[in-house]
Amino acid sequence: MIRYFREIFEGLWSLLVGLKVTGRFALAPTVTTHYPFDELEVTPNYRGHIDLVVNPKTGKDKCIVCMMCQRACPSGCITVKGEKPEGAKKKVLTEYRLDFTKCSLCGNCVEACPTSAIEFSHEYNLAGTSRHDFHYDLVERFRDRCRALGVEPKIADLTPVAPKPPES
Amino acid sequence: MIPRPDPTLETLVLNMGPQHPSTHGVLRVVLKLDGEYVLEAHPVIGYGHRMHEKMGEVRNVSGFYANVGRMDYAGALSFGHGHVLAVERMLGIEVPPRAEYIRVITTELNRIASHLLWFGAFLLDLGAFTPILYSFDDREYILDLLEHVTGARLTFSYFRVGGVNRDLDERFIQGTRVFIRRMRSRFEAYHKLVTGNVIFRKRVEGVGIISPDMIRKYGATGPVARGSGIPYDIRRVEPYSVYSELDFDIPTFPEGDCFARYRVRLAEMEQSLRIVEQALDRLPDGSVMAEKVPRKLKLGPGEVYQAVEAARGELGYYLAGDGTDVPYRLKIRPPSYSNLSLLNELASGVLLADLVAIMGSLDLVIPEIDR
Description:
The complex is a heterodimer.
Chain A: H1 2-27, E1 50-52, H2 68-72, E2 78-83, E3 92-99, H3 108-112, E4 118-120, E5 135-137, H4 138-149
Chain B: E1 12-16, E2 28-34, E3 37-44, H1 52-58, H2 65-71, H3 76-91, H4 97-125, H5 130-150, E4 159-160, E5 163-164, H6 170-195, H7 198-204, H8 212-218, H9 223-226, H10 234-237, H11 258-282, E6 302-310, E7 313-321, E8 329-333, H12 335-341, H13 343-347, H14 352-362, H15 366-370
Antiparallel strand pairs in B: 1-2, 2-3, 4-5, 6-7, 7-8
Helix pairs in contact in B: 2-3, 3-4, 4-5, 4-11, 4-14, 5-6, 6-11, 11-14
């Protein structure tokens, strides 16, 4: 009989102890952020989709069209094309497309790049109405980012290089 | 055998899932009920089958980094750890000590995050809404820390064969120390709010008792085995990485009911904090990537089995190579698969509401079962 009442009392007491905890938390400051109005700072190490690295002084890219990123990608979402302008020694990037619908953000492409020509962007507010919204043309994005930085983009520049005058 | 409805009997066949909030994913359990009592419970799996093993057999090792985290989304780093350890064992690659310590620190933080997710979801199954808000607050700290070092919040793909792909910085180390202090003070609130609560105790004590014999029969591991008094933990019985240098306990509780499994996980979080703290103190300097990792990882010929302790139990990678850089066979032994297989024997004769508590206490992650 005493045990019966003790159990009831102890059970009720445990609920009061729990209520004290929730009461303390209810008066504590809010820990959440009201998202569209406030935004949290994203860590600089965040890995978003890839982007070509911009040289902010010259507006040039660092890609040498070696195709390592395209080969390293396990899902085949990178397409790189390059051409050799007349008279030049090195290939020039003409097209860099990323199919972000297939990308799983493993980072193999960035690790494979011998010239560190690609980096992770910090964009996470990605939403679209069509899957074609996620087929990125990184060369076009490169131009936009150059203009935002206030430099003239010098990418996919296929103007023939003037031949050197013959040494006399 | 999945039971079929039989109009001559007074039993009811009921589908629990594939879209049921307490199955935590696309798990379907076909129940045979006599009133409120469960006679049989047959799990039907495979709704989320994504051919991860097959993908491992058509891609090279580095192509599989992204897959490992997608099997167990709650404790992705343990899955990555097992994968790289298996490949390193096959190729005989020495990993720098700093990289191994970083792997242990991040994996243990991930284990705490996984248990916190379980803590909230389990109590949500039992009808308590408040604890998930507090546990997600703590989990958010861990995810922020891990995001800072790995670059992702859930599917990390952080471990590489030969090391890790980014070094720890001071911000992570200081943040982790602050987190350890904070987390230790939070356990008191959890115990007051949940462990002592009479409604919670009535729902979990004596419910779903798994005998040690049944654990051995079905090959259940992890907190499920330790909640039945079997001190089986891969970190202790078959030490890998740097766990043999660290001091920690394997919490076991002999009762075998849902409450014992609950207590095992809460005690494990405290042990993980101890491991992280020790590993941070002993973190050696040096490189985080082995120097002599070949560009093309040629596997074998030969085979290797590597087990690690994931948040839910023993996770095994069986890797067979035939001399090319693509594995001949990659078999994954996920812990939840074995833990789920004892459900039918466990569930016969319990109330339907208790089945929800039992399934919650097993901590099932469905993509890892289906893989």
